[in-house]
Specification:
Layout (H helix, E strand, L loop, with lengths): L8 E7 L4 E4 L5 E15 L2 E14 L1 H9 L5 E14 L5 E14 L5 H12 L8
Parallel strand pairs: 4-6
Antiparallel strand pairs: 1-3, 1-5, 2-3, 3-4, 5-6
């Protein structure tokens, strides 16, 4: 099909579940997680909200960063593209899904500080030390 096409999404929303990190057989990291994007609108003078739930897929080093720092409820900005994927279950049932393949993301809130502090303590050998 000739013609100009554009497959690009920009989203701001919240994680609906913690990222799940896996590795392909070749060792490439891949993280998947749920994402909710809401919009507000007026209907007959009443404020309404509509929420769209999506599955996001992140590859490589960014997948590892997502798994380490993102948690359910975090607010992030996502840039990516839509991808249609099909598969067949063990019962020969055909399934399909449209996912957002993340190219870039940005924290819009501070990441989970407790996790970062624990990691720094482990790296600096301060685990178990108490301050007076």
């Amino acid at each position: 099909m000739p013609g100009p096409f554009l497959n690009k999404v920009f989203l701001i929303g919240r994680l609906t579940r913690d990222p799940e990190l896996r590795y392909t057989t070749s060792g490439t990291a891949v993280a998947t997680f749920g994402f909710a994007v809401s919009r507000e609108y007026l209907s007959k003078g009443e404020k309404k909200e509509d929420t769209c739930f999506l599955n996001l897929v992140v590859w490589g080093k960014q997948a590892e960063i997502c798994a380490e720092y993102l948690k359910k409820g975090n607010l992030i900005f996502v840039e990516g593209s839509l991808h249609y994927r099909t598969w067949e279950t063990e019962d020969n049932e055909k399934k399909s899904v449209i996912e957002v393949r993340v190219e870039r993301f940005q924290f819009l809130e501070k990441p989970n500080i407790e996790i970062i502090e624990e990691k720094e303590e482990l790296e600096n050998g301060k685990e178990g030390e108490e301050s007076l």
